[in-house]
Amino acid sequence: MLFGQKFHQYQVPEWAPLYIPYASLKRLFNKAVRAEADSMKTQPDFSGVYTSLDRSIDSFSGFHYEKYQLLHERGAELCRIYGVAPEANTLPKTYDANCYEVGNFLRAIVELRKDLEKLQWYSRVNEEAIHRIYAKLEKHGNLAEHFHQGHKSKWIKSKSDRDTLCSKFNERLNALIADITRVRADANLHSTTRSLCLQRTSGQHLRASAYDTSLLSFLANDEPSNLANQLEEMYLRNRTQDSYFQGLLYDLANLSIASGARFSASFLLSKAFPKYGVAIDHKILNHIITISGRGDILKEHARLRTCPLCDSAGSRDELGNSLFVCAIEQLGPNRKDILSSKDIFGRTPLHYGALYGFPITCQSILGSLEACGESYLASLILSLDSHGYTALHYSVINNHAISTTVLLDTLRLAGRTGDRTIDQDLGTVLNDLLSIAVKYQYSDIVDLLGKCQFGFQLSSHGETALYVASRSGREDYVDTLLNNGRDIEINIPESVHGWTPLFIACVEGHQAVANLLLKAGAKQDLQDHLGWTAKEHAALRGHLALAETLNAWNIDISSGGPASMPTKPVSGVKPSFRTDQSYVIVNLGDLRNGKQVKAVDLMDSSAENAVYTNSDLSMEVSIGGQSSTSLLVELPTLRDTVNDPFVFPVSDPDKAWISFKLFRKGYLHTTGPSLLGSGAASLKTLNNCFGAHRESLVRARSIAILEKETLSVMGTVTFTFVIAKPMAHPASPFMPAHSVRGKGLQLVGHRVIPFSCKAWSYICRNVQLTRDLLPIIYHDFSLSESGTDIPIHDLSFEQFMYFSKVQLPRGEPISVLRKVDTRNMPDGTNRVKLRSQSLTQDHERGVHEFRDRMKYTVDFINKGFKPNTRGDFIQDAFATLEELLVELPESINFNIEIKYPRLHEAVDAGVAPVAIEINTFIDTVLEILISHGRNKRAIILSSFTPEVCILLAIKQRMYPVMFVTNAGKPPMTDMEIRASSMQAAIRFAKRWDLAGIVFASETLIACPRLIGYVKSSGLVCGSYGTQNNIPQNAKVQAAAGIDILMVDRVGLITAELHSTSADN
């Protein structure tokens, strides 16, 4: 799928407005290209692109640095609290802390690393977007080389500096996590005689005193009465100054909270603090919330939970709530100041309560300040921290529906006060938060915010929440927003493309959502910034069923929109292949829709690698033993895995193997990336399981990645590949190449040979191979004439011809091609007229028996007839490709469709998905064409199978190659991604420098301006299908500039087109 189409899916929702405006930059680039085409300039002016790119990079870099600094400060604060040097990678050897303290430190570091990974992912997506903009500029060519390189070098330098900072920080956190995990495995850590908190307070001279030992023992056993007696004794003996004693009490309270000593903590906060003059401040409150909130953070890291006693989350939420309520009850008249106080990150206790989803905590804070008035409470809820987030932001972002309800209820009360400032701020925040909730697909929160009955306007990202919901495809979200009790404008376009919610529903193919919008009154006749309609966007992307539900297009309008796009180069990538070289073409992942398979699927790591996450991973793909080329892919991959495959040249595929190596990048790895694991497989064994000249139609393969040290399976890699082998007798490079471009409308006779008509330009014939490798002319996958579903490639030539014989009238010789009437042929050749034949009653009886034999075959059951049967469509005996080329006049041009078996055909027929090896298949056909096609006859090669088109493009340049596709025409049986839509087909054809595409005509009839769009991509545009036999449909496509029309009723269509031309 296109990177731009999935760009929103890669984003951190709350940071969406802060990403590189990829779509806007692309629009600027395309605008410059269009301006060049309109003004006939030799070089487009990309100054606007560079200016906007500069500004975007500066904004992205500034935000990244700001976030990094806040994370770094958090790390430094944690190290200060837990007694670790700011830049240390390990704990001190004499680390004096108990297990609870170390466990809390671990959870805090894991939480910090998670936030760092989010920042790294933000950086990764932006870097990919910037890389793609540079690639577009470079692909266009003729750039001011010095300026462009200087601009790009500056970016690369800033990227390198940023990556080094984050990698260094990430490695340090990983090292700390590893060391903490190691330390926690020490049984002595559960000793009650050590505490980092008390060590800092009491000083070295009291470190091992009986008092400290007793205090820790009482806390560990949660004995508040003994703790009270010990403190009273210490105070009465006046062993220390009041300030020291108050500090000791403060730290004891923190330690009791961290240790889960509920009764001791309650005693300290409710009785000891007032008695000894210790004040509860916002730090204590924040500590209660964060300790409880981080309680289950190790759930996703099973191998880090090395202490069952301390890692059990148990009733941490309940404990935190009860302690917080206890603490807040002790606040005096200055409670307003305490609860509104901010820490070094600009957060109040309400921020933390919302962040960790504690509704009781949030309710306690708001209830405690109720006397301050609703407006004050609203301002507290909407108060921003250093990250620019409110408490409501944190509650929504972290999917805490109950906490969100508490905050929204308070804001509703505040809204009744009539404070316009609050209403304005709240409206902006709610619009943004609703969009965020929809992107995260937090259903409960979408329901809460959607029913707030505020007007849905553009968010800070330039999109309405209804637009975001429509893009997500969630019918329930759209229904909630449309029925929120307030009139809303559903035709508000987003700012970049000018797409309304209906547009984006059509782009994404969400039929149910589009129906809801149409029912609500969405306008269908609107056009976006480029003049496209929603119907055309749906048709382009293969959502034809959706497109057909929209209003029919005005057939008199064939210009503008898609038809007015500037002409693009024939191919963005000019493949250059040697005819004596083999190539291995590898795509990551599966190339079939509906397959929920990850290209790289990693499992739980071993204990050694458990401290690491899947960030900063990369994979090297190479062909061992045959190619010096290796390619590195960052994981997870953001590249187009469909039309951007790896192409490896190899000399002998039978001796080659494919290798995948998994690396971790890291600042601390001075020798380069660290190898984690690898997997390899022989290409021959992957593809040679069914004997000579046979292969599976299932091209996706999965191999295991084995961990370097243990050789245990750490994951799998799924990939799809095809091998292009050189022909044994390639065509001479000096043979002239045929072209199909620039010849005006060309009619192709389909299925029936219209010998009596001179209007056609080409005749379409389908070529398959028998099992003894003879190219024959036959359309369907299986030979139903046999009464079975046996595939053609499983029949010998003699078996195949036998079923041609049984269809012939008695006494008629088995000639492969009967003589034809060529008096009306373009070359004027006169030949004997084809004699009429009358079938005897015996033959008619034989035909009935023949049809009766076929009635249980898949073809007959699905269609009710067999197209290849005499008397239905085909009127001649079966033929070979060689006989077709030799016996028919050179004036007859051919569209030779290579009917290589497809997976869905085998599945539908219920036969094994095995076929003739694809190189053998294609080479056999090409050898016949090259041997007998060296004449004036024009030949086009075409196929529904993408691999066939790729190999034809690599093996020869003599004949133009065209991709044939249904392009989304329902019912969808072929799940091949490259054939799933017009857009996918265009990208595929351009990638492999094909001549053009032949589409199922339904798409072009519904949206004829798309014909101009295909041609502007530098491709020949054709169509096929029964709809082309309707004159009006042919006229519509011809008026839109179609190049090739494949029809059955050539005479009728020709007469109608000539009539239209004469009228004009």
From TrEMBL:
Keywords: ANK repeat, Hydrolase, Repeat
ANK repeats: 461-493, 497-529
Top-rank taxon: Eukaryota
Domain SPX per the UniProt entry, residue ranges: 1-151
Molecular-function annotations in GO: glycerophosphocholine phosphodiesterase activity
GO biological-process terms attached to the record: glycerophospholipid catabolic process
PROSITE patterns the UniProt entry points to: ANK_REP_REGION, ANK_REPEAT, GP_PDE, SPX
Domain GP-PDE: 720-1057
Protein name: GDPD-domain-containing protein
Organism name: Petromyces alliaceus (Aspergillus alliaceus)
